[in-house]
Amino acid sequence: xxxxxxxxxxxxxxxxxxxxxxxxxxxxxxxxxxxxxxxxxxxxxxxxxxxxxxxxxxxxxxxxxxxxxxxxxxxxxxxxxxxxxxxxxxxxxxxxxxxxxxxxxxxxxxxxxxxxxxxxxxxxxxxxxxxxxxxxxxxxxxxxxxxxxxxxxxxxxxxxxxxxxxxxxxxxxxxxxxxxxxxxxxxxxxxxxxxxxxxxxxxxxxxxxxxxxxxxxxxxxxxxxxxxxxxxxxxxxxxxxxxxxxxxxxxxxxxxxxxxxxxxxxxxxxxxxxxxxxxxxxxxxxxxxxxxxxxxxxxxxxxxxxxxxxxxxxxxxx
Length: 318
Description:
CATH superfamily of the largest domain: Acetylglutamate kinase-like
Number of helices: 10
Oligomer: single chain
């Protein structure tokens, strides 16, 4: 759908009234770029964990647990609707029944089967912003279901596929960087990266918290943006590359043990760049391992700061 974007905000973004007010302004700023928005919200931070702690005292069945855990997202959508209305935006919040977010009957890890697209399109003619709960749905018997870890991201990605619209997953991360910023302080935020590169990075440096959503987005060829909910900075675009792209090294990771330093340089189909592989030969590595999307260099203990700077100069800061 033209001029429509899907925005998802994580739980830390809606954890108190000040943050909710801030996010309402972020949503308003998106309306300068897109005519209409569908906003998907997580439960306020820690609410789901608190509910789980309370429930542990009792012998709960999966159906009751899903009923309990669904309450957090509905708190978020109600409060956000109030904030947007106070911000003079025409918005409406729909819970999982009103939006008819139908899922498989598997409690705790359901898959979305359909959403009432016709109803939402009709409401978009009246309202500028539709607010939906992430993470929750209903099965064919109208039982409440939940989508598992990363469920709100999955909801947002699913909605983006049925409307053929860009999807923004906005949380406490600013985007994807060329290295882990906590290890390499001059790592730069990437403008874009492929899904395959993102999954390759997750093997060496960090866990993808929303694996279910990212895999679904990759399969459905969604143009996905990962960025900050609290900063108005450009997010990182995640996409499937076209066939004619030029392989590049997008990411450098650093790992060490008592005796060795391991450097992994990641880029989709980087094995095809013989010039870059040859460029590594000037480095005094002990071993080199090559696969389709990664060059791994094993070094003896050395001045790793100097090594990383040289690698960045040769392969990232071109």
